[in-house]
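We treat protein structure as text, and this decision shapes the records that our systems exchange. Below, we set out a record of this kind in full and without editing:

***
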Amino acid sequence: MLIEDYLWCVASLPAGVFNPYSGVKTCILLMDKALAKRTDEILFVKIESDGFGLGAQRRPIDKNALPDALRIIQAWKLSQQDFKSTVAHTVSRNRILESPNCNLSGDRYLSTSDRVGGKWQRVKLEDICKFMTGGTPTSSNKEYYENGEIPWLVSGDIHKGEIFDCAGRITTVGMKNSNAKFLPKDSVLIALNGQGKTRGTVALLRMPKGTCNQSLVSINPVSREQLLPDFLFYQLGAMYTQIRKLTGDNERSGLSISIIKTIQVTLPPLEEQQRLVMEVDGYRKIIEGAKQVIANYKPTLKVDPSWSKVKLGEISEFKNGVNYSAANKGTGISVIGVSHFKNKVISDERDLDEINPKGLVRSTDLLNDGDILFVRSNGNKALVGRNVVVNTRGQRLTHSAFTIRLRFTSNKAVPLFFGYLFKSAEFRTALTGRGANINNLSQEMLQSLEVPMPPTSLQREIVTGIEAEGAMVDSNRKLIEVFEKKIQDKLVEIWEEEQK
């Protein structure tokens, strides 16, 4: 017997209809050989509710699609007229038989415009998921923490996205004497509260035998034949802003399990979930790779021992910056201060302090393109000796009294070459003899510093090479933007709602 000779209708039931015995998705196949011969079409009817919730408790609800589905099936059995409705559509046998495995998922044959109102079914989390939270062993009891072997998550761990490990540990005794519980692997975790952007942030627990404190909640689908954890993770992550709004704008207003249970999520067919997860995973791998490139790249300038050397004071002059106060700020000359020093060589700052130029700044105080700045004095020793090559881009810039300006007097010096040289660890060691372990940097120290002086053409060649590398790094930043946008577009395609 060939199923296509008898099949005339496929009625799909939502996963969870047979809970608590089984949470798998089920279809009812209606077969009649005589009827099947009268039409080349097969009717697909999607039943989204049967009058009961889809969770383990199967509580009565006010939605029941069974009567409408029955009327549609009976009407089509009498007429076999091709039609589409909000819950049913027909597909030709030939189209179904094109698939090697004769796929009987009706949604597979729908275009985006055919879907109900452009959206998939929406359900509350409480109807399709289970929830767990954790606990905190008494902090004063060392027995609960010392030499702990059980991974114990706190709200700060949520920002890892995918959690393979954590710093926190508790002991078996600590777990037994608290509300902490082992969480299922691939749990979707959400932060109930926490500082800054923590509240409402989600993560995927990728390690087994982990637990958490009470600031996190574990969300697990009742059936993975109905809802994939990875799909839920992406969807809740895209709903971050909406979730935070559930508790208002007050940062101290935390979420709760009861609030989370009311969140409605979109529930496409499993095939759609798998497709989205695979596609977004691919995008995320590209983004993570690009982030690794950016995080690990540092311009390198290898000094050749054969290069001639000169004292820095022989090829440049120095000047300390100007004093100014908040009272002097206004629409005038922009000032680069210690707070603007960043881990880069070329500065094109737009958000700088301003001072009124009248009587405060002379022309000799202004920075030229190619000047190099050093932090002169700061309690934070890590900043001492850091520098930036200033690219004025038409800005009128000066620098604060806590900095030293270097300006080359020799046309044989390429400022960017020395900018990259001064950013290197070798320079800092040469300057201090102890790395950056100094409190003050003086003009005298800089003047006496011996620096390599390769031919000007070689300096430019080295700079060109470093800038080419930098351009590739910048392209990775653009790559991140492009693929983050692709992820957002994919979420919009599935859920048909603008993500903000």
Remarks:
- Residues 456-495 form the longest helix (40 residues).
